[in-house]
Amino acid sequence: MSTHAQQAADTLADYSNAAFELLELALDEAAREQPDTALVDSFISLFSQASETLRLKIEGGYKTASDIAAKLRKRLVAASQTGASDPSTILLLAQSFGAAKLDLGEELSGVVEHLIEQVGAANAGDGDPAAMLGFIADLVKQVNGDAFALFSCFEETSRGAGRKPRRYAHSGAVFRRGCRR
Amino acid sequence: MPIAVLFSGEAAAAEASIGWLLDPATPVRRATAHALGDAAHKGNVTPTMLRRMITMRNWLPEDSRTALDAAIATARRKGVSPAQWDEVEVRQLITTGIDGSGAIGVLAHCRNKRKNVLGSLVLKHGVGVRDAWAQEGMAQKELDHAFVDAAVVDQFTIAQDFLPTAVGHFLALGHQTGAMPPFGLVRFLEAVGVSSVQPRLISPASLLETIEEGRAIGAAAFEYLLADGFELAADYVFIDSWFEAGDEVDAVADAQSSGAQ
After folding, report:
1. How many CB pairs under 8 A join A and B?
2. Spatial distance between the Cα atoms of B246 and B251, rounded to a whole number of angstroms
């Protein structure tokens, strides 16, 4: 982790509601007519770190943290229903939540499955298998040929969708969006 | 996805697909093993993949080993030999004490082909191997920072040859709890140069016997203490206390603090 990221993580650790506020900031920016995608990505990255801190607090027995996690789940489900924010942003936020080893719960897992199909269909490129292979080749370049980093990328996306990998056989295109972070 | 990744034509992707052998779902593990058998038939299993498949074989539950054994045998018949393990230099290897959640952290700094490698492991009582990763190409400053960060908790230097015993115990524990180890465990073991780890529980008495000097208690007395754990507070009052954390503790502490002011 870079020095700045560590500083951000340390600062976030002292601010118990950071995860929820970061989620709202990401959703608000993503809902704009012309969202600043770099800003959305930054919010998602910070949300991801705040979610990890939240999980540690939950494991430490803090009920407040469990309540915040429940609020986050509810908010993500609500966001997917309003249609105000870009579905791929909601999917990335949900995947970050899952990647932090926070329980998605049944309702949010169902939402993520639906979003994967939705985002996958949007990025499928008319069902061209060559596009999928091209995406894998692209991802291999992004991780500099590191097999373990590549697997982590696929696994985080799988975990974010409630661990039902069979659904991904026809939705592989969603990984394009999920892993480009 | 494992099958698409395995047959994508990208070597790194094929190597990554092995990770699904450690998936929590039996159908995924079996499908991956069968796909690796097909890949072996087509000559697509590399020496590195074969070495890793052999390394991981006993980590899998018994219900998933047959297909993997077949894939390994096919690769060998095709003339593939497992890749050699790299010669690594372990520069620093520490472990933390057990924390309140039953977790033990291991941090390693190694050198491999003139590159720094940082590896980390989390072993957890009641679970198994919870987390593992390794990253190469780290700057010395980043390594120093990692060890300074880890120094906030008690640290103990350990010998490299203790790792197979420790990791083996938690792999066996994972067989009991159903917790599969992470694929990153392979990377961690490659980083620290430990070529074989077999799941094997070690009893507290056996563990105690590995301490050659400084033992203050014998195995029999130790087993008695562990068996009598719940009753010990009656004889040793000081152990009937623990650090508590949580909202209720914060509320009491705040109230006390306000009262003091």
Report:
1. 79
2. 9
Tens-place pLDDT, residues B19-36: 999 998 898 899 999 999
Domain extent listing, chain A: 3-175
How many helical (H) and strand (E) elements, i.e. helices and strands, does chain B have? 12, 5
Q: Go through B145-172 and write b for each residue having 16 or more CB atoms within 10 A of its CB, e for each that does not.
A: ebeeebeeeeeeeeeeeebbebbbbbbb
| Cα four-point dihedral sign B152, B153, B159, B165 | negative
The two tokens of residue B219 are 């195995």
Residue given tokens 């297909």 in the structure block: B67
Task: Report chain B residues touching chain A, CB-CB < 8 A.
Answer: 1-5, 8-13, 15-20, 23-25, 28, 100-101, 133-134, 145, 183-184, 186-187, 244-247
Name the pTM for this structure.
Answer: 0.69
* B184 or B241, higher pLDDT: B184
Amino acid at A54: L
H or E element: which one contains B167?
helix B163-177
Single-letter residue type at B9: G
Beta strands B89-96 and B103-112 are antiparallel
**Nearby residues of B117 by Cβ (< 8 Å), 6 or more positions away:** B88, B108, B109, B110, B111, B134, B135, B136, B138, B191
